[in-house]
Protein 1
Amino acid sequence: MSKRKVKETHMPVGECISQVQMILRERFCHQRLPEKPVGMESQHKHLLELLRRTAVHGESNSVLIVGPRGSGKTMLLNCVLRELLEVKDVNKNVLPVHLNGLLQTDDRIALKEITRQLNLENVVGDKVFGSFAENLAFLLEALKKGDRSSSRPVLFILDEFDLFAHHKNQTLLYNLLDVSQSAQAPVAVIGLTCRLDVLELLEKRVKSRFSHRQIHLLSSLSFIQYLDNVRSQLSLPQDFPDTKFYDEWNDSIKTLCEDQLVVDVLQSHYNSSKDFRSLHLLLMLALSRVSASKPAIKPTDLLEASRVCMVDSKANILHGLSILELCLIIAMKHLNDIYEGEPFNFQMVHNEFKKFLQRKSHSIHNFDKPVVIKAFEHLQQLELIKSMDSSTAKIQKEYQLMKLLLDHSQIMEALQKYPQCPTDVKQWAMSAFG
Amino acid sequence: MQEGIQCSCCESEQCLSVIRGIHSDDSVEKTFLGNGRNGDKHTCICPIETLVWTNDYTLVQRARCNIDCHCLSMCHCLSMLSCSKQCSYPSIFIYGHRATGKSHVIHTLLKELELPYATVSCVECVSVGLLFEQVLLSLFGSDSASLLSRNPSLSDFVRVYKQLCVQASAKQTRYIVLDRAELLRDMEANLLPAFLRLQELVEDNVTVILLSEIVWDKFRPNTGCFEPLLLHFPDYSKGELQQILSEDSHPSYSPELYSAFINILLGVFYSVCRDLRELSLRLSMLKFQPLFSLPSVKESDTHKLWRNIEPHLKKAMQTVYLREVSSVQWEQQLKMEEKEAGAVRGLSAHAHVELPYYSKFLLIAAYLASYNPARTDKRFFLKHHGKIKKTNFLKKHEKTSNHLLGPKPFPLDRLLAIFYSVVDSRVAPTASVFCQISSLVTLQLLNQVGHDDQLDAPKYKCAVSLDFILAISRTVSFDMVKYLYDFL
């Protein structure tokens, strides 16, 4: 086909931007799977091979996918499943069952969910089973088709696997892994978890039935690969209708990724966390500034987005405190400095505050004790201070021991940004003792 | 292109991004472009005002009237919310001080832009079932909640939600707003992580917005969770507070007088409290006739006004701010004060309960037992105590002052010993004396330490403050300070 015959569609800028937003938002809000996951080729192959053996050859397997939060475990699994289900006979036979540790908090609930997902509710009906194992065996038996001698392969996908290990006696895990070891039916048990020590949580009998096959997703991207990933995430796909806009956009993204400011921002992000999720958060914030009047992402957008991501929330809260509350925090800081972090009570803080009022302050009024107590309680509500012991012994509230949950440097930084801070308060904060 | 168009309220160009985010209506963009090319017909494009072009004029006006002083945070919120066909981030966490307008802005935005949403305040949800019911009711109508069983678990909720989604598929992003989200931490442990990833669990276009006063770092569960988008709602500055409080002025006063009054009020209360709710409460209590209708003061004489009002404000700080006196009582007391020259007192001043004579001495003895170390009893309470080495009474380090550390427990025998030496008349150890000790415990002026079963040697602690005990000792003419170790 000659290039001249290809019709070039031009859309108004607004429409283009809206399309761009839609495509990129789908990527960043994890609603659309990528074509193939980045940096996980070997893991992808391994998992695909394993599941194919279960689905096609009827071999039972169990595997654990382990990786920190946001490293792409669910994404990997979904990509593999998508590829697996492209084969026609696999699609017809295989039954995936998705369980989640957050939802199925009990083995009973889990069993009901399994029954429901296998569409065997009518078959089970009102039967009462003696044990979990009987119930599970009945379900798997029921999956045997009439004419074929073997039963359909079932893929049990257990999200938040470590939460299942906290159930009573770990019956669900035991039975599933037992089925995967014995020759009852072709079953694959795939667990996804963020804990590296998940095997320690399993009981001995459960652990011995597990095949000890683990796929680790510890992201090993170098910074160059990370930058490439950013560029590809922000670029538009080939099938974008308006080709002129597509070229412009991709060029602007290319220049963006070569800008030094952007590289520095991405470097600092890469140093704190390499996973995809935090990257998507950053790009989402940068994307929200794209509009019809500004149809490209500028370096300042990324800088601003990075600033929003890395802000210290406690400093923001300190910004909104009243002067009295701020003075109390400074008094607590001094107590921490003098007594090296030992817990204090309200009387000590009030004493410290009174010393400041007598000696150094000109602008702060001498408030009554109940007013100061109210300010102290407000700080407690904001969880900036916490009581040390929650014992039931009756201690008057002025004498309860508390701990300050703020760092020295956080307080000093917040003081710099505090609006209209009186100078005597600032000087008191910076003085070494009292 | 549309360069250089600025929003007059927040003076940032980013406002324009929200236009596309909200309405993918072409009419917006075309009119906008048209006017720009014709040479700057308008200079102010606040995100809400641009919606004028979509014929939703009433929508705009209402939204504008309802949201004040929050343009920048509103812009951020708007840009996060999505228009119909787009996805939105699964969870958003908005934090800021009390009364900074978080719920107000979110609700106004969601209502005025007519997005489907459900709002639940976690304070009302004593059980998770209530939470689920309310969400389903708001999003799917009144019959949907009946699909939930009596004690629904999270698994039931997700299942019912998926079922209802299939019947009523989402054309727009649905929003679930959870107010006072810090209480979610105390409910079941799986609730918070599940809500953060609700979009993934129910496979629907839904966003959960959490509003809270407490920072996100306190919410994170042990093994981590899906990190939401964090947005901060900044607190009001003094100028903004003044502007907001001056908005509803009393019709009989001129606005200048009223804003002068607000200025004075802020001057007194701003260093103590910046919470808009509390300040407007104080304000509503102090807005009454006597303050302003003083014959000697003319409206423009602010200095005299200040001198008249200032003592009232100071008293208000002690009583009304501490919520010891309700607004009605405050007004009555002030009216009474015009007739008599009594001072307005709060509850704490009335707190010296009338105790019988011996009970007062028992309380004094208990206070001395709690705050004096046992080894110093000999010096204070015996007539002939012999030579006491000076080293025992060197000035102690401030840290160990008993008034800073709190009361110490003492056995009953010690209390009685001190009591007998403090009371000037001879007292027989009758049951009535012991009875009074028990009533002091019931009044919570003494606390019993240790187990109830210890009948032979019960231990107590004194639970009153220094001011209180000094007031009591004054009524029985007992010089308390002489007997306290810390004031030697």
Protein 2
Amino acid sequence: MEEVDVEPTTTPIPGFDSNQKHLGFVWGPGDILVYETIYKASGGSAGGCPFVHEVRKDEDIYSPILRKLFNESHHIFVGLQRIREDMPSKNKKPQFVSISKNYRSVIRACMEELQQVAVSTQDAALATQYGSQVSILLAVELIWNLCEVLFIDAAPAGSLVLHLLDWVRLHKADVDEKAREVLASESPAEHQAYWDVVISYVLQGRMDEARQVLVKQAALQPAARAMFKLLDNLLMKMPIFNPGETQTLTEFDVKWRHWREEVDRCLQDQSFASNPHLEDICKILVGDEDVLLEHKELLSTWYHFLVTRLLFSHPTVKPTELHYYAQSSMHMFLDTRSVPEPLDSILLAAFEFDIHQVIKDCSIALNNWWFVGHLTDLLDHCKLLQSHNLHFGSNLREFLLLEYASGLFTHHSLWQLAVDYFDHCPEFGRVYLELQIERVPLDTERKALKVIRICEQRQMTEQVRSICKIMAKKALRNNRLGSALSWSIRAKDAAFATLISERFLQDYCANGTFSDLDLIDNLGPAMLLSDRLTFLGKYREFHRLYGEKRFLDAAKLLLSLMTAKIAPRSFWMTLLTDALPLLEQIEVIFSADQTHELMFCLEELTSEKSVPNPDRPMQDEDIETTKIELLRLALARNLAMAIVKERESIEGLVGGWVAGAVVLTGMQPGQPFWRRRQDRDWEPQVIG
Amino acid sequence: MEGINAKYVSKKISKTRWRPVSSSSLQQPDIFATGSWDNEDNSISIWSIGENGVSIMDDEFEGDPQLVCEYKHNGDVLDLQFLDQDRIVTASSTGAVTIFQHHHNSQTLSVSQLWDRAHHYPCDNAPCTGVVCNSPEIVTVGEDGRIMLFRADQEGVLRTIEKADSSAIHAVTFLRTTEILTVNSIGQLKLWDFRQPGNEPSQILSLTGDRVPLHCVDRHPNQQHIVATGGQDGMLCIWDVRQGNMPFSLMEAHSAEMWEVHFHPSNPDHLFSCSEDGSLLHWETSSNSDTPSFLKGGRNTSIISRSAIAPAGGNQSLINAWLTGDSSKGHLETTHMLPSQMLSVNSLDVLGQCLVCGTDGEAIYVNRHVPI
């Protein structure tokens, strides 16, 4: 077993006494369910607690303000995935940097909103909660920004210090606030925070601003004018590396050494001895670590100290040398006895270019996967994560994204965002999505359609089928046969369509009318999904033709339903009964041939039924027999009429000699008439 | 795409509607309502863009809606319409139909009328999917296949058409004061005349054999026989309900479900549609007539809103641009109105030069300079 990275936190379950009871639990994707169990091996059901508790690791996805973070970053994430793989990496870098900045601006926007509500809220507990969320976001942004400078932008020597300065300035913005306060006061130079402001500016390398504030003091002390002028000059002349110009790093280094010698000379001359503040500033300019450490309050963090130290002592530091200065700065700045905070070790790991340690520590320190997931994804796109093999799942990027997306999927509303994250996890994303999407609760058809659309776009036919089936079952339960049929047609679920068609036919047999005609009349090609559905559609068509008094078409259709074996055998009797009114029409509708076929069908049916069914009551049997007798009679009469009519028409057509021949080759006495089916394909040349 | 801003609201937006403005004042709308869906607690919200007195040119306020008030809504808001300037009717996934009153003085919302389980199954809730108002009459449709007629001032139900549809009805619109048009999940348009007794539609139109579910319908504001529909395949259909069973024209629009389609209420040569594919389209057809379309009717209505009925005074003899429009001849132009985004645009509304839409990405977009 592996050792744990940190001691796990304890979550108390309300109303539960761990000394007497035991807990059982089940893992969920983002939470666990906890319930009381009875531990004793035998006997005594002591009446367990009826509650099941849900324990969530991540409360943040329930914060309305942080939801904006998830939504906006989803947009950026998808944009990042669309950056083409084959683009030369030189062109990619600016894009990655700008994406990183977009992520950070979303964090900042969120932070500002949280800050506002934290101030305006009346509820103290809520204010603390918002406050802690702000501080988490602040730390997250700080880490992200440093990773951007070191890994994504990968600034070379020279620019590196400039970027780090920007980083410190952005996260130590209270200087500006203090400066505004000082400058707005009646006599700024006598304000108690005056020198703090000047020195803070110098510590952040903001020389122009420092000089502007210094002017106020110089104006007050005309006697020390020369001294102020000298410092002003030093500040002004401090060389700053400008990566945009043609100046090389060596040229800059020479220039900077000259300047530094000049500052050193001033110190040795005791030029500022009469003013301790100015002397301190001068010592800062040469990077005097003792003086810097005297201003711990103003630096406030070890990484500010690090950057200031680099600015004044090693402005051309290379990325590879950073870790040395970072470690020493941290040790010098922090009390040796105190244990570094998680944030300190994360930043130190970043300075050491240990990306995996950064990600690991962040995963432990933060309670959700948003930050590590997105950062890892971006770093992976920058090709900075060498295939660091996990002994579980696929790679680190995919593992973290899957965790993040699974968390989103547990949310009743944010699940839609998770889909795109799963899409971009090549190895396990699809399996995760397949398992999760089927479990989205479906309250309305609109939501079902949205879920189906997600599945269809990804060719997840199995899931589409399953969702349609859920909807069809739901409709069936509510006795909405039409809806149920529509859903099973959409699912191409032949078995279920058959089941529903049966229900329609049963309803018809019971009521004598069809329901949901608007649907059944417009089945179109969907009718072919199942045999029973085809029969339902065709049978309804028969009724329509009959209703429109198109008897010939109706008769033809009715017959074909049986001869083409579309109608289930159990329904033949109904069909034959439906033929009765057609047989009874004054006009002859079924031709002799058709009548023969009807007879054949009837005989086939009755021969099957010759074995008496003991379960059926005698009364039913009687009705059935009467029906069959009636049918036989009607069929025989129709046959007679049809033969007469057909003979008449043939006589009228080609004359008597043909008719005589027909009689000769036709039916023999005593032959069962349905057997004529076999020789019905006689043709006129037989006579010749 | 200029002048369009996203406002993230921490709720998936299912419906957006402008509050109607009186046509005499020539004002642009400045208040809209939204409804949310799929949240644990859903709500309807009233938003304001720019305060009164702030000039439209002031870019500070441009497009950033401010929340005015909010009220809890039971179930998903599946449809939402303004009955008049201060009453809103919603359709809920619980089957309830609710009238909310917006009190302008205190800027609060309250429930003024509730028809619980207006749509229902024998032992379950049936979502109410659509509502349309012609004050004081309210017509609702639902997944239960019922059409219900209410009056805002009466508690009871005025009329119920049971089994109006064998499948779910997705949307409804007024054709005339007594005639409505519904679209359903098997691709049919059904005309209903409330003067007729019985439960049979007076006409059924459909794309033969296609059975593609239709999700939205809107009627031409001046010429009541022209309607636009959109469905699951993202196609835009223009129908002339007087003529035949087939749509007049079929145009490929979106790659997924079209959730809403709207003619511009005062300039019907423009049409807007939005879709599950995350796009919002502006369709413009150049009409050949010299008569500016604002002279074609609608002058006498006091409220410009799609739920109101325009008088039948429009010049019917003019051939409507949508019926002559032929996309292949370049009469029809379409423009994307949103920057590329992935999640569904569920709803849109356009009034005057202002357009508002809401998405599953929990964002509201407002454009105050729609080129009309």
Protein 3
Amino acid sequence: MSASPPDPVFVLRGASGPVTSLTFIVPPNGKNVQKLAAGTQNGYILIWDLQTKCLLQEWSASDGEGSTIQWLYNETPQQLWTQVRYEGVKMWDMNESPPVVMAEFSLDGYLGFGQSDVVSVNDWTKLLGIPGPGQEGVSVWDVEKRYKICSLLPADPKSRGSLMQTRWVDVAGQVSLVVVYESGHLSLWDWKTSTITGECQVGENPICFTYHNTKRLGVVGTTSEKVYIVTISDDLAISTIQEITITNPGLSCCVVRPDGKLYVTAGWDSRIRIFSSKKHKPIAVLQYHKKTVECLAYSVGDVEHLSTGCLLAAGSSDKSVSLWNIFN
Amino acid sequence: MDSREAFALLQGASVRVAKEGSVKSIRRLKEELKKVVTLENTAEGEGGDGWTSCISDLKEYLLFPVILILKTHPNCSQSLEEEIASLIKAVVERSVIEDFKFFQEVFTQLFLLLTHRASPSKVRETSEECKEAVLGAATCLLTGCGSDVRRQVYGDSFRPQLGHAIHLTLALATQEKSTAIKTQAIATLGAMSQMTAFPNLTHSDQQFISTTFTNFLPGVSMGLTKVATAGDTQNHKVTAAAIDVWCHVVVMVMRDSFLLDKVPNYGESDTLKSLRTQFALTQLRQSKDRKQEVNRRKEGKKNKFDLPEPEEEKECVRPVVSVEVNGEWVRQTAERLQILVESLRCLVSHSHWRVRLSLVHWAYHLLTHCSRSLEGSVIVTIEVIAGLRRDEIEEVRSAAEDSLQSIRSELHRPGQHTKAQPQGSGEPRQTQSQVSEQQTQDRQGLMDILEERIFALATQLPRVCRQQDDKKTLSMVRGLGGCMSVLGERLRQVLASHSHSHRLLLALSCLLTLDTSHPNLLQEKISDLDLNAEVEVAHLPGKSFQYFRDCWILEEVGRLCQLVGRYGDLVATVDLCLHLLHHTTHTRKETLLLLTLILKHGIDVKKGVEEQTKEEREHVVRSTLEAALSPEIFNALLYINPAGDSAATDTSSSDSPLDRGNQTTSSLLAINKEGNLSVGEVRSNVVQVWCALDLLAACARGLGAEFRSFLSSVLCQVMEKAGEANLLVANAATNALKEIAQAMDHNSVGELIQNSVPHFWYPLSLRLKRLSQYPSAPLVLQVCLQHAQLDVLAFTEELVGEVLTSLDVHHNSSAHPLLRVLLVYVRAAARYETLLTSNKGSVSSSQCKIEESLKCTPDPNYGAVAKFLCDYHQNHLTLKQCMEKISAPDNVECESGSGSTNFQNLANQAQKNEKEMSENFDNINEDDEQKQEIPRHIELVVEVLERCSHLLYLNERRTRLLLLDIVLGGCEALAGWEDQRLPVLHKLWKPLMLRLQDKDNAVVGRVVEVVAEMVRTSGEFLRRRCLTQVLPPLVSFLEVQGIISQGKVRSSGYYLSPGYRTQLQVLTKLPNMIESLMPGPSQLAQLVNVVASYCHIKQPTQLCSTAYAMLTWLAHKYPHHVWLALTHLQPPGIITPPSHILPSIKVRGTGPQELPKEIMDLYNKLC
């Protein structure tokens, strides 16, 4: 790491509170990514035009006082998923201005920071994994039919502690749900049978989890200096393959680049660290933010005038979103 | 009227003519004739057909006697000849000549009158009136002849006579001095060539006359050219008429439609000709001789000129030599005519518009009719039309514009339409299609010629423009413009050729070579810190060019570029320009200017240039901006001495190569090459940046709202330039900002900045963090704060925080620019605070409401009014106090009479008042502060001031002065925040006091100002320190300096010394301080004495007047002290009190001193 790390290509501002979630808006067919959505701690969602760097839309997604937007997810230009802490998951119709709620799913008593996840099993079935009921459970919904398929509750809730993250993974064509518990357990649930098919445990209290299906690469960020790399085998066995130690403890988010060659972590030390997937070596430490980096997102493709490959966006508690064009 | 009636009327007179043959009788006949004509005219008015005249029937009868006279009396008097000629004219005017014999008779007699008897080729010497009359008669005769006669007139048999007549007429036209004769002669020539009737003649007649005139062409054309180019002194009518007739004759002979008939394979290109011969040869080999024979016969039938016509055969018997019209002849004639065309072309600059108008028609006809035969002249004609398009006379302009339009539409008309064009009657169909085909070829040929011409002109332009002959350059540029505008759409193809456009652009950039020798280019803002001062731009130099001064040339180049922008492939052109920009460093400025001109019209969204997509436009602008903003262009060094402004850096920063940015230079170390720029180079840089800024502005204007996506890359850099000290660059950048604001639909630059904070703040923060790379980054913030309204203040807080952080790192190397930003910030904060406090009275005390109302107030003048009211209120209070104090002593004096106790009382009272007031004020403040949190900007100002307290120890003068300014601004900003203010003031006090003992008098003066301001805002807190630490040194300073300055005159140079200036400053600022300090009586007495000592006639005038002003002020507040001091300056004397009870006082004055009159007046007033 001889050369000094680059600066962000741009920094977006205008958020009224810490930025807690980010997602690039999937562009209409054949176009470059041009919009970025961010959720803030006080319940607002902001959408920027990345070409003009102007704020396009801002509205409150929270019903009440304004709780944290924990999760933002987008797969079509018309829809945006949000998860507001204490309140629930909402699906917004982006054609309206301001957007209107198309569907709402309850958190059912879950108070933690765990994020939901959406996956399409096939053309007609879309599944939503959402924390709750309670602190330990996970519910699986059929999104199209608005039908709750099951609730996945561990047999020994006490020993697991509360739920930290949920994530759909696709292993050899089979969609399963990875649930990360406070105890360090990573359980692979079969949503059809409501049983755990694989499980492993990491030594620290996990905070964030991400998984790349084709590379079979999972990253678990914890409250300590430890970062765990996990993988899931064909027979649905989940196992830790590497343990990385970073300088300062605490990660709030981790993402794998869409091509799976890199993964990035967002630290409580306000630094963004980039690792190579091959050897799990740290290859860059990006420092710009003054406070904790809360969330990360990668664009699927080029962003006009900003990057020729995937653009990395990082939201921070200092109310700004930095955009990085790095290792492209 | 019946011819018989007329005969009856005219018979008598006619008989008398025959009998007498005198002048009188002919005159009589003429009068009679006139009568008949008038009678006839009235009759015609009643029912005549207006065409046939009775005179026509009687013409032979009437003219017979006079012709006889001419024949029988060859040496009759000139007056008789004149009368005869005018009679002939009168008769012929009204007749149609159907009889060739009659025509010949009259014609011969007429020209005999003009012929020298001895040498027939010369003009006979006769009276001018006679010549004019003869020519007039000949003109009428020629116009009046019928078609049969005409055919014979232009026939071979009559040709020698016609030739002779033409020769004589030409001789008259060229040699005579009288304008009337010249005009008449030219008119006669026109009549001889059937100028008016020609377009109405049948095709065959036209061809016939043309054939005849081929013989006369050289003489006529040369003679007329001679007449036309005789000079500006001759009547314009002659010149115009000569041009018209020249044009007619040349067009008649050389017109393509005529030559097409005459010359086989006329107008074919050389390649085609050679192909044809080759083809014919192969055919020759292949086909049998017989077959060829048949072919030839067939062809012979088609082309009547291959074989002699029966008529011609007849004529051929006669020995008249006729010019053989063939390709060779055409070529040679064209070559010769080319010379004449060139000489006529010079008339473009003729002073009379009528001549220029004729020239337009001349050029138009040549171009439309002879484009193939006179190939070489095509360019000349186009250039003439193009040049006259910008004539100052409307008629000429519109005529030229119309001609150009019709030529262009002719050229760009699709081929099939030409068939519908009206052709001469009796034209065989085959020839018609042939003609249209030829026309298509014609156009093609013309296009090629034009293209070549553009290339040639572009090649010549650099050489011509270096001659610095504006007229020449202008006509050349106009010619180029003309060719290009005629080409129109076709220009795209021309410019698509790399070599063409490359050459053209190079030529233009050479022409536009900018003059960078103006000394004002390097002018800098005098006080770059005074933000309110409007930039004085009136005396800034405009863009001046090395090779020309005429503004028309620039305008013409602008039009040229407009054509390039409109018709050329914009992407390719711009790419080429950028290529030039990168590869030729010496023409960078010019290329930038050229690009500006091209883009001005090339990317106009509103005009909506077709075929241009949004992506294309964006691509063009993006690459242009990239080039314009590239460091080597945009960040070129603008100051000779890099430490001069904004680029001040320490030598330490040049340790690492990264730190050695474009402007971080050290003038002391010669290792840094960039520091050793010559004045010329720097001037050139200034112009370069100026051009680049103009280019940006042009892009913004062109793109309009689409420019938004470029803001993030452009805005920061332009704002940086707007903050530069160089007046020209700053002004250009401000203009660019205005353009951008307009493009974005904002009313002002302030609004633009306010709305574009997201665009520029990130690049700015990045730059502030890397100050060594971007040493002038603080300027951006400065400009931002300068222009923007207060809303931005909140947004800049973070940035100012960053500035403070980088100040901690760079407090040595680049402190100056950072400090400037801080100064701007504290001033902005002060402005904000004044606005807040002035609003407090009217709006409820809740902070948030005030802010809301601030945002809502749409009127920008609000602040000024409020400020005015505030000032007014304060002034009012002071005035009241003064009034009280002036009136109070009188009363007191009457009561007690003890001066010192009175002073004491007064002082106490005043103090009490002050205390009460400040207590009240404090109470108000306390109330407010309890509710308010300390805003971030106040915290920041405090932080800034704390930094200042540390940095005041710095040794550099400029920095010190700047710091003192910041302290001053900070004090103003903190006026309403006592709790924050006082601790900081306390911290600042010690370094300030140290600076008071500075050797640098400028610093001392500034310190006095700062202290005065501090005392104003927190007098109570600082009063004692001031009285003990500030006032005594100042008084003693004045005491010492006052003695030195006595008797100094301007020529001694003392006025330039820092000591003098500081005295002036201190004397000016002291009143402010005294007002709130309220010094004790002894101190005051000391001060007044010192000031009074300046009121001496020997003191420098300005010091004296300043001291007087201060004394007057003091006299209002402390009249007794002043009186006493002034008394001491009087010669010794005894003051007798008004009351006898009191003892008289003996004043031991300082002796008879010369006091200025004002002082004496003041003294007398006080007494």
